[in-house]
Amino acid sequence: MKILVPIKRVVDYNVRVRVRTDGSGLELNNVKMSMNPFDEIALEEAVRLKEKGVATEVIAISIGVPQAKDTLRTALAMGADRAILVHATDDVCQDIEPLSVARILEKIIKSEAPQLVIAGKQAIDNDMNATGQMLAAALGWGQATYASAIEVQNNTVLVTREIDGGLQTLCLKLPAVVTTDLRLNQPRYVALPAIMKAKKKTIDEISIKTLGIDITPRLSILSTAEPPKRQAGIKVKSVDELVSKLKNEAGVL
Ligand code: AMP
């Protein structure tokens, strides 16, 4: 069974992002970029399925700027067998929207024929949480979002999902699309030998032009603003003073 893992290059989660002075978006030049954390979890799960003998091949795919090749190298070092980079733009500030990503993935999936796609539940740069769902709809495949456990059994995949007030387990027929939540696993640390070994693995590069898919944005960002600065807190001397302030000043009691 082949597993395809879509991987997005995003601003590293430790970076404190800044809004561009003209408010048109975030400052992305010279900012540390990394693999989207939910995609790291997706890849870890796919690699574990391969290590258990359930999967035969793990393919990582990224759509975006040529620099996403570095992110794919990390994916190969984590254990992906090969990678595909779809060159969609040269502009590091251009986000490829979920519908376009889903259409590109659909096209690649038609030729690669994976049985399972494991994607992140959301990209931490735009928080869309849409690509997996759109891809499943485009392919007509079953989907399970927010996975906290995945078990492949013959022609089906059992997916445990975190929902309000508990856990839900779905049984999907393969092929299927699954998106990952935070508690699915703890991605492995990539050691130097794995990084060296990954240099020999293949990254196929495809130009968006050869796919015939229109990726013109449908959404336009009207403005971007930093969250308002938090007011400094105060210290109270006693519980009575706290209760009085909550009652008389905050009006919450
Ligand atoms: P989103 O719907 O944008 O929040 O993204 C959800 C998931 O779709 C991500 O966690 C990735 O697995 C995948 N994805 C989104 N954009 C890309 C991209 N440009 N290249 C590869 N995978 C992507």
What does this structure look like?
The structure is a single chain. The protein is α/β, with parallel strands linked by helices and 253 residues long. Helices cover 27% and strands 27% of the residues. It has a 9-stranded mixed sheet, with helices on both faces. It has a two-stranded antiparallel ribbon with strand order 2-3. A hairpin with a 2-residue loop joins strand 8 and strand 9 (166-173). Helix 2 crosses helix 5 (192-198) and helix 3 (98-112) packs across helix 4. The termini are far apart. The mean pLDDT is 95. The structure holds adenosine monophosphate. Adenosine monophosphate binds at residues 6-8, 36, 38-39, 62-64, 96, 98, 101, 119-120, 122-123, 126, 128-132.
